[in-house]
Structure prediction request, 304 residues.
Amino acid sequence: MRGSDFMELRAFELVARNLSFSKAAQDIGMSRAALSHIVKNLETRLGISLLRRTTRSVALTDAGRELLERLSPALHGLVNAVENVDRFRLQPAGRVRILCSRLAAALYLDAIFPSFAMAQPDVALDIHVSDAPGDHVSLGFDAAIQAEGQLDRDMIGLKLADGCDQILVASPAYLHSAGHPIQPSDLEHHRCLIVGPNPGQRNACWELLKDNRSASVEISGPLSINDHDLAMNAAIRGMGIALLPEPLVALPIAESKLARVLHGYAGREPAMYLCYTKQANPTLAFRSFIGFVSEYRKSSLLNM
Prediction:
């Protein structure tokens, strides 16, 4: 349907419902003459009279009455649909869909959920947690949380947090049994837990830094896994030494479930960004989420 078709039908419906060109013209916000011309165009296009006009009254023909009965519900549905969509422009409402890795969800989004839900109760967050690579736009997401270096050039990146240290940890029971490594090369003789995107590895290389000096260590162990939480739990249960983000293991260390190994040596997690495409007319819900995350970042609540 062309826009002019809709306008003709809308004009006819208003005149037919009011049985008055003057009242209908006032409702639609145009002159009586312009409205009469639009209705006349519709009758000409259909090849049939829809209204009987006199200088003092307007009446429906049988064809006009039939058209009005069928047309009114459909037009009202269209008008209501447009008005319902308009609420997304007037106030934040609807859904914001985010794609992120499991680690990003645990370190960053978990801190945002409650505060954003309180600030914008009419906006729902749909969070899809996956470590599988994918284009969030083609998958139907509004934004994705990606590590520094993974941002496409045409993406806008909102920094969530600076990169954090990865530290070496093990359970007190494991260290009591296997002993404490004294230097990085000692890790080659320990059971190490490998965390990475490709489970199945039995060997890996850990890049460690201390006082701007680097050390590369070839390690192996009984577990290769792509989930940081499960790796942490495995370390707590004494399976070996793990290299994990410091914020993730802060509580188990405080509770003496884990102990640091090789103090001063650490790896580095990259900074994380909320990435999204530049849109001509983003929803108010999405704009409110971006604004909230930006202010949250500025308040340093997300800084690690």
Summary: The CA atoms of residues 105 and 264 lie 27 Å apart. The chain has three domains: 3-90, 94-162+271-298, 165-268. The domain at 94-162+271-298 is CATH 3.40.190.10 (D-Maltodextrin-Binding Protein; domain 2).
